[in-house]
Every structure is written in structure tokens, then in C-alpha cells.
Amino acid sequence: MALSEFVAQLDELVASAQDAFAGAADDDALEAARVEYLGAKSGRLKAVQKGMGGVDKADKPAAGKRLNEVKSEIEAAFQSAKDRASSITDTDASTDFDPTLPGLQPRLGHLHPITQTIEELKDIMGRLGFSVSEGPEIEDDWHNFEALNIPASHPARDPLENFYLATADKTAEKTAKSTGGPLLLRSQTSTVQIRVMENTPPPVRIISLGRVYRPDTADATHYPMFHQIEGLLIDRDVTMADLKSVLRLFAGSYFGGSDVHIRFRPSFFPFTEPSVEVDMSWGDKWIEMGGAGMVDPNVLSAVGYDPDEVSGFAFGLGVERIRARRHNVVDIREFYKNDVRFLKQF
Amino acid sequence: MIVSRNWLKQYTALDMPLEQLEHRLMMAGLNHEGTETIGHDFAIDLEVTSNRPDCLGHLGVAREIAVLWGQELTFPAASPSESNTPVTELTKVTLEAKAICPRYTARVIRGVKIGPSPAWLVDRLATLGIGPVNNVVDITNYVLFECGQPLHAFDLARLKGSQIVVREAREGEKFEAINHKTYELTAGMCVIADADRPVALGGVMGGADTEVSSKTTDLLIESAAFDSMSIRTTARRLNLHSPSSYRFERALDPEGVDWASRRCCELILELAGGELAAGVIDTGAVADVRESVALRFPQVERILGIPVAAEEVRSILTSLGNVEQSADDEQVEVLPPTWRSDLTREIDLIEEVARIHGYDKIPEDVSVPMARSARTDHDRGLEKVRQVLTALGYDEAMTISAVSEDWSAAYSPWSDAPPLRCSTPVLRGANYLRRSLVPSLLGARRINETLANEVIELFEIAKVYLPQVEGLPEEHLMLGLTSGEDFLTVKGAIESLLLRLHCKVVIEVHDISETMLTPGCCCELRLGGETLGYVGQVSDAGLKRFELRRPTTVAEVKLSTLLSAAVLVPQYAPQSPYPAVDRDINLEVDQSVRWADIEAVVTAHGGNHLERLDYRDTYRDDQLVAAGKKSVLLSAVFRWADGTLTNQQVDQVRDAMVAACRDELGAELRG
To answer: Over the stretch B325-365, which tens digit does the pLDDT of each residue have?
Structure first.
């Protein structure tokens, strides 16, 4: 058989197969057409394929090539007919499907708002070059008071102002003896400053964050446990201008806006001198941020630094207050109730 | 401290608008709490920090105003005229308790006429919220609020033996105060007594029996110095706080003792008449401990970050009452005033310069040098832990660090040592420092159950406190979980943490017995031989103890153990480009054979190409599995780095696994 004759047979087959597939009215008709043309045993393609044997040997590659093409074309025609048929079915189904139904939402947990704030504060202070340091929550007299320039006569040591650990049992008594004084739940994160400075030569640039404890009666603005962020920078020539500038960058970063200003009001803390209350501008008002000051020379000396060599600043802010203000939480007890509906809001 | 605007005017000019006055005082250290209009006066409420007792009187506040506005301060002379009778003929003072009352002075006025105070005095006190009593008592109050030194006037006729003995209270001694309450005193408290009984609680409150009444004609005016610690302890112990105790708890001006006494007598003579005995009985003395302090001028800029001219520094210090001892180009040396015992060091003087010069002059835009700061591995690890848990649907809780005795006793897997106890409860009934987070989380769970919250999945990351024989207690950061899901789901959450942290170490499971947890449905998890934590379904008894209605699984993980196994910087490992081949193996084993046993044997015989071993299911159907047996379905996945594994290769390994399971575990392969 001449090549041209074979090719003509093939072309005719394609055309008629395409017509047959396109004309199939339903799935059954399409299946019948498929068997007629593509049937493995006695389909017309198979029959035509057998004619290959009669083609001249030299033309066989060309014939084979064309045969493969035709095969693909017929299969493609079938496929598109099949797709069309099934898409008709799909269209029918889509009228039953309601895409406005809620998607399947896996339950997502929520970080506690205090954690979120702490992480953000760490992040901001990290960008300002402050690294995070941690210390124990149960402290001794030296770190919570003595080294912080709070002498034995200071009212801050009053048993009513602190959670001292009971020494009635033997363990606590022994512990108290070995640590030189009664232990207590730390009343401020400044204790960490002492621990870091005792073990690190200057410069020091740290923040410490964590739980602190004071015997306040729980109400909308007080809780016997709360979180503090404390910053400390010790180096040569650190000044109150540095303190103000760092606090301004911090406030601007956390509360947003470049037009944030910082105001100092004189105050008194045993471990800083001068000591100030820090306000930041909030619209046309000033709001309290926390306490700050230059690290008292007695504190520097207590940790073995030379107050004539280095100077530094420290500041401390209440995390609950910061969070409550930014998110309009009116009662800080909410933070510790752990109602999942509350947690979900943040 | 509430100050009257009209009263302040007696000592310095107040021409500035009220708002400006309040603002400037606040910016110089007297925080403005609020102002109320009282009659024709303003009651200005100022917060006085504990280092500034000099501002607990109008004179001190007026002095600040005079300094800030550069004005004159008029100080009353306090020089009453005396009669010829020496005071020593009329009374006697014995000072026995010098440690708690370093100085006691007495003056005597005879023949006073007790009556109402004049309107101006009543008005002054009214602005401060103090009602009038009689002219003498009002005057002692007035002088207290004028200079900050508390005073007391006794009815001399009612003092037995017409004398004063200052001594320590006897244990159990009774005393009736002016408020007509009777207090039982303890040793260490300072008592002002007459010949035979306490007539005042020194520095805290006078006694009912010797108070000035309409019948009083002769007065003993007490002005003294008391030890601040002793006063504080007494006031706290008796819960008896007064304007006097408030002031004596702070370091008052030692010079104020005599000045106040004279001022008080001067006003009594003026308003109640009578005649002042000559002289004063002045027992004890408060040593002048003041030392001069040098301020090196460059230190001002070194601390404040701004220069302040030497002349200004000197003028600020002088205006505040410091007396210059010497001055040159380098420094100034001053003797601080008696009323400022807080000024003992150079840095104290720098603070004075700063607050008067003005903190507003300190810039807020200097450039602070950059510094390296890295997140700690600890924080990096914790962040991943939190990510995993929130992704798994857990909400983060925060509970207080102390629990009740019952909760503390309920569950403590980490320590048998008795818990640390606070001397006062941190929160209602919660005075035990927790040794586990689980009880607190079950408490939080209960609150959510009472609020009918459907899904309660909580975790907390916080410390537990384990007592040690010596030194500080150990604080361990724990992860606590409470879930409504079953044991395996919660255990899976912990396994997910290990995966996310790329821990290479495998968890080992050990049986435990714990009344809070359901037997058989709880275990200890170990990591490299160390306890990682505990997981378990809360037992019925446990649910009852915490008043929970619905089942829960709890877990607690020691984060130091977890994080020390974490690989925070995972390293690249090439992945085989060839496909994996898997084989399902269904083994029938005795009920007592555990997955861990099967896993160990199968893994040991998995050859070099076992990529993964997955547990699929366990069947215990009596129809299909022989009695006392169970059928465990697992899937082994194989892959080779250098080529595609053939079926024969994989089957060979599978057969070796099955054979080993038969030999070692008595397992039979099921079809």
C-alpha cells in the first residue's frame, strides 16, 4: 500500500471519529463510539493500524509517525467529549453545592495577651541593642533589697509589702540561713540587674521581664502578681539624655508614631538617683509609662563597678498596664481568669 | 499631703496662676494629685515621696515654691515670751528609752483658757479636711501641718506626779488612745508615761485620759524625735496610723523639734493666753550627723547629659538651704540643711540641680550607640513551642504562682519535698508555691466549664518551685497542658514539639501510678534517661477533686529537658531522588506486647533503607483475632539514596522483620 493511501485512511478515520464523539448524546453513546473507534480488540483504529503491514518498508517510519499522531488526536477528541459530558454533570451538581457555607476552620490557639506584649517589647528592645536576661522569682535579701540600696530600715522591706516565705518549716529555715536572710517572691525585676552586673563586666545592655509579686488586694487595676519589663544600660558616659532618647524610641515603636515625646517628673526609688517618673505624650495628653533613673552609685559599687568609671540608667514598666492601655482592657484581673473567650479576643 | 493655697501665701508670694503652680511643683517633684475648692481656698493635693519629709508641712512646700520662682521665704520667728518660773520646777522628764526616742522636749504653759479657735485657724485646718477641736489641739495640728513636726499637748494636771517617763511598753500593757479605743501594747513600742501609766503612744497617738479638755488650764507641750522603724512597727502592729506616725516614720528635721515647740507655745499664748514657763526640758539630743558634700561640676553633665553653668549649680544648691563651705572652678562643697537628710552624696546634689534646672531641658533625641543583641536560644525554643501549641488549637493561660494547700497536695510529680509557703496568701487561700502547673490549669479549666465554654484547650508556660535543702529553691520552667482530647492526642502534641524542635532523641515511656490520673492511661516521658514530663488522663477522683464535669487529659513538660534536646539550627541532609516503597505488616501478638516492643524489633531489623515506621491500627475483634491476642497493623517505608529499591529487596527486609517479631515477640503475620 502506498503511504498516501494509508495516510488518507487515517485522516478519514480522524474526521469520522471526531464527528462520532462530538455527536454522542449521552454517556452510553459516547462509550459506544469509544468502543467503535478505540476498542482494543476490534476498534476501527486497530483495524487501520493493521494496514501498516502493507506499507512499503521505506515509508514505515513516516506511516508510524502519522499513525501515532492520529491515535493521539482521536484520543484527545474522546477525552474532550468525555470532559464535556462530565462537566455537564458537574454543572448540575454545582447548583446543589453552597459555596457560601463556612469553610472548615481548624481551631487555632491564641497566645496570652501578656505573652504577646512581652514578645513585642523584647523585639523592640532587641532592635535597640538590649538582650534578654532572666533571674529567679524567689530571691534573697541581698538581690531584692541590699544590693539595690534598700537598707534594712526601708519601708519597702515591710512584711506587709512583700511575700516573704514562711520559715516555720525546717527547709525554709535552713534555706534562709544559707542565703543570709529570709527569702521572698521578688517584688521587682531589678534583682536581675544585680545578678547580671555581678557576673558581667560593663558594658551591660539588658532587659529582664517576668513575674513580680506584691501584696496588693486584687481589683481592676491591681493584682498581687504582675509582669515587669526592666531595662538597664551601663557603660562609660551614659546619661539621662540617653535614657530619655531610648525611652522615646521605645514608646514610639510600641505605640506607633514619630511624634511621641517623653517627659520626666522627679521621683524617688532607692536604686536610682536621680529618679524620675516617665510620661509619654498621648495625643494632647501625658500618660504615665513607669519609673526610671540613673543607677545609684551605691548599686554600682555593690556589684563591684566603679561609679566614677561607668554610669548607667534603668527603667521599669508594668506589662499589664501597657497591654491594658493599648487594648482597652478595663480590669487587669481578666488577664488571670483564663476565660477562653477573653483569650480569643487577642 | 494636702496644702492650702491661702496658708502657703503666708510664707511666699503666690502671684502665679494656680495651674502653673501645680504644674511647676509637679515637674520639680511634688506630684499633683488634684485640687479642690474649699470655701475661699484651694486644697492642693501633692504626693510627697518618702525621701522628702521636709515637704510634709506648708513651710517645706513654700520653700520649694520660693526656690522655683526665685522668691523670698518668710519664716515665722517662733520666739514666745517666757515667764520667770523655770520649767524644771513644774515638771520632770525621764528618758529611759533613748534607742526609740532619742530626744524628748517639754515646755509648760499655765493658765490657758481653752475655747474655740479663731476663724482663720479653723479655715486653715478645714481646707486640709481637719475639723476643729479646741484652740490648743487645733494649734498643735496647725504646727504639725506648718512644719511637719508632730507635737502633743498634755493636760498637766492629769499627769500623775506631774512628770513624764519615756520608756518601752511592758508586754500586754493596756492603753486607751484619744480615739477611745484600748490597745494592748507589746515590748519595743515607745510609751510616754506619767508616774504610773502610759499617757501616750510615743509618736503615734495621745491618750484619752490626759487629753486637753475644756477644764484644762495647764499644759505640757511635747516635741520629740522618735525612731522611724519603731514607729512604723508600732503603727502597723496596732493598725493605728496618724499624721504623726506618718511623719515620724520618715526622717524629720532634727532642728524642727525645738522650733515647733516654740512655735506652738507662741500661738497658744496668742490664742489661749496663759504663761509660758522659762526654758525647756530637753533630754537626749540628736547628733548633727551632717557632713559637707562636694559636687564636681563636670559630673553634672556626665550624669544629666547637659551642661549646667557652675553659677547656676551653686545658686540652686544655696537656694535650697545648702550652705557653701568652699567653691572653686572644679567643684563646690556644701553643708546640706538639717531638713534634708537625703542629701549626703554628690549624686544627691546632682538630682537637686536636675529637678530645679528642669528635666525638660534634657534632650530626647541623642544618638545612643548601637550594640549587638541576639535572641537567646531559650527564647527561640520557647517561640517554637508556642507556635506548635497554638497551631494545635491550644490557648495560652496564665495562672498565679501560688495555690491552696489542697491543690498543692493534689498533684506533685516533680518533688516530694513539702512546698514552700508564703507568710501571707498571694491570693485568697493560695499561699503554697506550686510544684506543678497542672492544678492551676485544672482550676482554669473549671472556670471555663462553669462559663459553659465548649472547647477548653489550655497551655501555660511558667515556673514551678521545688524546695532544696540549702540555697535558693530550684525554679523549673514548665509547660502545662489541659485538653478535652484523649491521651494519645495530648501525647501527640508533645511529640509534635519534639519534631518541631528537631530533637534527635527519642521519647521513652515509663509507667507511673498517680491518684490524679487514670491507671494505665498515664505515663512518664523520658528523654535520654532524663524525665521530660508526665501525661495522663485525669482520673474520676481527680475530676471530682477539681469539680470538673468533663474528661480531660493533662500533661506537664520540663522545658529545660526539652530545649536542651532541641536543634535550633537544623542542618541540610540530601534527600534521595528515588521513590519510596512501602509494606504493610499485620502482626498478631499477645495483648501484653506493646507498640514500643514491636517498634524496637522491627527497627532493629529494618536494614539500611528503612526510612520510616508508621503505626496504623490495633484490632482486638474477637471474630478476627484469637482470644488474648491483638492484631497490630504497621507500615514500613523504605528508600535508598542510590537507586530504586526492587520488590525483592524490600520483601527480603520485610520477611526479616516478621521473622524477628516471631522469634522475639511471638508474633504471627496475618494475611
So the answer is: 999 999 999 999 999 999 999 999 999 999 999 999 999 99
Tell me the β-bridge partners of A208: A133, A230
* Helices A240-255 + A113-127 axis angle, to 10: 130
Indicate yes or no: pTM above 0.90.
Answer: no
Distance from CA of A253 to the nearest CA of B (A): 14
Mean pLDDT of B88-105: 94
User: Residue ranges per domain, chain B?
Assistant: 2-69, 82-284, 293-361, 377-564, 581-669
Which residues in chain A have their CB less than 8 angstroms from residue B350's CB?
A: 273-274
Q: Are A133 and A209 in contact (CB under 8 A)?
A: no
CATH of domain B2-69: 3.30.56.10
The rounded distance, in Å, linking the Cα atoms of B166 and B227 is: 13
Q: Which residue has the higher pLDDT, A33 or B24?
A: B24
CATH code of the domain occupying B293-361? 3.30.56.10
Inter-chain residue contact B455 with A340, CB threshold 8 Å:
yes
Determine whether the interchain pair B396/A112 forms a contact, defined as Cβ–Cβ distance below 8 Å: yes
Q: Looking at this predicted complex, what is its ipTM?
A: 0.90
Show residues of chain B in contact with A180, CB under 8 Å: none
Q: Is B392 on the interface with A (CB under 8 A)?
A: yes
Tens digits of per-residue pLDDT, B518-564? 999 999 999 999 999 999 999 999 999 999 999 999 999 999 999 99
The CATH number of B82-284, from 2.60.120.650, 3.50.40.10, 3.30.465.10, 3.90.79.10, is: 3.50.40.10
Nearest to B364 among A205, A245, A274 (CB): A245
Domain B377-564 in CATH 2.30.30.90? The answer is no
The CATH number that domain B581-669 falls under is 3.30.70.380
Cβ contact B422–A172 (<8 Å): no
Q: Once rounded to an integer, what is the mean pLDDT over residues A14-33? A: 84
Same fold, B82-284 and B293-361: no
Residue (of B167, B160, B229) closest to B196 by Cα position: B160
Type of residue numbered B445: R
Q: In A, which residues are within 8 Å of B418 by CB distance?
A: 169, 171
Distance CA B548, CA B441 (A): 12
Pairing of strands A285-295, A311-318: antiparallel
Closest CA to B579 of B654, B640, B648: B640
